[in-house]
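Repro:
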Amino acid sequence: MMNDLQTAFGDHLRFLRKAKNMTQEKLAEKSGLSVQYLGDVERGKANPTIAILEKIGSALEVSLVELFDIEDFQAHSDDLRQFVQEYVIRADSESIRRLYGIIRIISS
């Protein structure tokens, strides 16, 4: 159970870091932690303390609440891809137009 949580947290941390266009090296520099340690956290191999989590959150400019918001993130990319495909198949023309607009915005 704990290992699953650590892995999910690590995946979410990687997602947040990449969403901020930040490399592990840049996050290490901003947080004062080593690249190796951050890599271990992202792989679910390390169990960071509250003090370390505060450093990571501060470096990413996210709250601890946001750092732990992993419930919705736990779905794997294949599951998300399947969900999107099924949504598009069932969507009406207006929904597809809106979805297209969103994709254009986030991909630019």
